[in-house]
Amino acid sequence: MGGDVLILSGLWNSGPQHWQSHWEARHPAWRRVAHRDWNNPQRDEWVAELDAAVASSTGAPVLLAHSLGCMLAVHWAASGSPLRAAGAFLVAPSDVDAASYPIDPNGFAPVPLARLPFPSLVIASTNDEFVTRERALAFAEAWGSRYVEIGPAGHVNADAGYGDWPEGERLLLEFLDQLRT
């Protein structure tokens, strides 16, 4: 695995107290994929922005995704892009098919349920307001992902007490090590 780590934030980007922001500050080589509009995401635009970031990466990158960023990763994988990812670390994938999703899914629904063409890990909470435990497990099974349940962790964001989240970073670093072997 010689590529970059690309951070895929969800709706509204990840604020300064979010674990993605903490990890990005600690690992300056990791890059957050920028979007023109964080508040009204359009699937095709976000997929194109991710494709451009993958194209500018050194080797196949690892996708470090949270929330809608997970849906972005799976839509990108299904987009037909000739580019490849080395793997995906998918935390709290939002269920854009559910009534609980807070905005119009703007093309992100339905959730792609094809096997991902790269290794992946889904990390889910038992009480996430944006995805049920059952749906998160179904996503992991459909995508061919390893599934890790971390208990009642809400949406695994700063509001749920997951600011720095050292346990998650440890899981990510283990995942990166596995991709290197």
UniProtKB/TrEMBL annotation:
<keyword id="KW-0378">Hydrolase</keyword>
<dbReference type="GO" id="GO:0016787">
    <property type="term" value="F:hydrolase activity"/>
</dbReference>
<protein>
    <submittedName>
        <fullName>Alpha/beta hydrolase</fullName>
    </submittedName>
</protein>
<dbReference type="InterPro" id="IPR029058">
    <property type="entry name" value="AB_hydrolase_fold"/>
</dbReference>
<dbReference type="Pfam" id="PF06821">
    <property type="entry name" value="Ser_hydrolase"/>
</dbReference>
<dbReference type="InterPro" id="IPR010662">
    <property type="entry name" value="RBBP9/YdeN"/>
</dbReference>
